[in-house]
Backbone:
């Protein structure tokens, strides 16, 4: 068997191991196995191949269950399995790490919306759960340096830009997804049924602080300000834009910006301030 | 070649697994070293790296990988290797290991350890890459014999001949998994002692021991439960042949409380001490340190321990986001 023949065989086997059904009734799999795989007196060649197929599905479905427990809970076993099977058929895992397995899952949920029960909730949940996955191993950066902040002269603040933590994600969601996710995870131990919640549109910040993951609701003005700061707008300009764009936000920003900044620094949402 | 590529004997270790973090960091149990799954820590930040740091504060840590895909058609992933090397710098691991296997083709990564056909093409492919990887990482690199559930008609040599040829040609180490020898001997009907006697013992840098799950038609390498009695016998023989080699107990499914794992590690220590004593005794009497092959074991179909649903998750539960 040459190197090219080895490659061809591996490509063929890879395709077969991604098949969702047992290979014993798959004529192509049987033919390939008979030709290349030895078998023994307990297992036919195709049955040996099928052991690896079973492991492929077991491993990847359980990784998705770990990463999207809330979505699994919303959908229930049957719909969840249908969603996951379609995903793994469409998206071959390509990364060396299972942490990347869900990289296109949000998009997939969006594409499958026509048949999904509670489709909008499912999409909110998928976005937030993928956010948690990303936060979990996002880069570590030092917290805001108090000495550096104290040394910034008064006149430099209006044009300063704020650096947000790489372990922070913002979401606008229509359902209380984080609370629901918590309840679903807890219900696995208690066996309680968790009801589908009523819509409750809000802004959400997910973040990591001191190795733990948190979620927090924020006002429209605070959310918009975070968004503008994240886009690199200088502090004064960002506050001004938010105040003029969101009705009633001017007073809120004026009254809270100092407290927000203090809290966002303490919670490591803001990790650096850059002055011109 | 320096024996074991200069890798020192670290004694007896166990795999560092998520459910044990609390116990280990609080009690600092008497274990000689920990092994970590490299991929779990090839990340940019967060809790896993913090936990790794806490382990490194008190124990030697060796790295063991599961996703290298050394036998696949595509060239070795450079980004993967770069991250692996960054982790080597962080852990100061005395060696790095992965498996004799392939993990996928055509761009797919199946996160499994698929067996290779034992052919010249596969030997050449794996040996060339193993050498390159060892040079790149700048620490000894070892490959592990896997448990397998199929063999290929194209194979020209035995698994132990394949393994030996690759490590000799590449001048790399052998991570020798004694349980995998037993599992594959059962699944493919070869003599486990022939395997154990047929490899270059001076290249063994580390040994793995683990439990397995017998589903009747075949055994799955679940790393679940205690090490089986015939595997302890094979381990004793391996130590008599190779001398004192760092030994690690892997337990990744239905993970028990740490003291149970520690007891299993202590059993390994006892078996190892006795085997080293037997080896020393032979030398004292003017004989060769290595025993001649008198034993034979082609495991018979028996002792079903699970009917179905046995899964393989090397490295145990993943670290993942919980709130
Ligand atoms: Fe192993």
Residues:
């Amino acid at each position: 068997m040459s190197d090219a023949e080895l490659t061809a065989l591996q490509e063929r086997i890879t395709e077969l191991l991604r098949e969702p059904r047992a290979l014993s009734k798959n004529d192509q799999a049987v033919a390939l196995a008979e030709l290349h795989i030895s078998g023994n007196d307990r297992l036919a060649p195709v049955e040996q191949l099928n052991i690896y197929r079973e492991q492929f599905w077991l491993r990847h479905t359980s990784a998705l269950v770990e990463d999207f427990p809330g979505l699994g809970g919303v959908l229930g076993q049957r719909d969840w399995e249908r969603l996951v099977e379609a995903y793994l058929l469409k998206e071959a895992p390509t990364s060396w790490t299972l942490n990347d397995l869900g990289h296109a899952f949000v998009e997939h949920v969006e594409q499958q919306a026509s048949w999904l029960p509670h489709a909008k909730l499912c999409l909110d949940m998928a976005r937030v759960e993928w956010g948690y996955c990303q936060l979990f191993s996002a880069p570590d950066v030092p917290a805001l340096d108090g000495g550096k902040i104290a040394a910034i002269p008064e006149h430099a603040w209006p044009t300063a830009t704020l650096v947000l933590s790489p372990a922070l994600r913002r979401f606008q969601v229509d359902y209380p997804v984080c609370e629901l996710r918590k309840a679903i995870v807890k219900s696995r131990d208690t066996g309680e049924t968790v009801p589908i919640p009523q819509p409750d549109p809000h802004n959400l910040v997910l973040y990591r602080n001191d190795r733990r993951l948190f979620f927090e609701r924020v006002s429209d003005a605070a959310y918009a300000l975070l968004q503008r700061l994240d886009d690199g707008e200088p502090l004064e300009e960002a506050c001004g834009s938010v105040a003029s764009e969101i009705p009633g936000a001017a007073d809120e920003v004026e009254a809270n910006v100092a407290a927000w900044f203090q809290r966002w620094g303490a919670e490591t949402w803001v990790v650096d301030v850059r002055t011109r | 070649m320096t024996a074991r590529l200069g890798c020192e004997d670290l004694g007896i270790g166990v795999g560092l697994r998520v459910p044990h973090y609390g116990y280990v960091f609080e009690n600092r149990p008497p274990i000689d070293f920990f092994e970590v799954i490299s991929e779990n820590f090839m990340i940019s930040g967060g809790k896993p790296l913090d936990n790794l740091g806490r382990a490194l504060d008190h124990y030697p840590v060796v790295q063991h990988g599961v996703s290298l895909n050394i036998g696949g058609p595509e060239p070795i992933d450079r980004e993967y290797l770069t991250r692996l090397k960054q982790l080597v710098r962080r852990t100061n691991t005395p060696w790095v290991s992965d498996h004799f296997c392939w993990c996928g083709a055509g761009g797919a990564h199946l996160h499994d350890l698929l067996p290779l056909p034992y052919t010249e093409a596969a030997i050449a492919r794996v040996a060339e890459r193993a050498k390159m990887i060892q040079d790149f990482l700048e620490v000894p690199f070892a490959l592990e014999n896997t448990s397998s559930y199929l063999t290929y008609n194209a194979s020209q040599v035995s698994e132990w001949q394949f393994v030996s040829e690759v490590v000799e040609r590449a001048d790399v180490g052998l991570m020798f998994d004694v349980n995998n020898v037993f599992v594959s001997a059962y699944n493919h009907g070869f003599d486990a002692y022939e395997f154990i006697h047929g490899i270059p013992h001076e290249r063994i840098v580390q040994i793995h021991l683990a439990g397995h799950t017998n589903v009747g038609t075949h055994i799955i390498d679940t790393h679940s439960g205690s090490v089986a009695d015939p595997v302890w016998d094979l381990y004793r023989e391996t130590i008599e042949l190779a001398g004192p080699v760092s030994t690690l107990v892997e337990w990744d499914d239905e993970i028990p409380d740490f003291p149970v794992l520690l007891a299993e590690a202590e059993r390994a220590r006892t078996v190892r001490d006795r085997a080293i004593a037997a080896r020393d005794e032979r030398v004292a009497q003017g004989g060769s340190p290595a025993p001649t092959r008198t034993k034979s074991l082609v495991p018979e179909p028996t002792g079903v321990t699970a009917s179905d649903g046995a899964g393989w998750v090397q490295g145990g539960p993943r670290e993942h986001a919980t709130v």
Chain A touches chain B through 65 residues (CB under 8 Å). The beta strands of chain A are 161-164, 168-173, 202-209, 212-218, 270-274. DSSP finds eleven helices and five strands in chain A. Chain A has a mean pLDDT of 95.
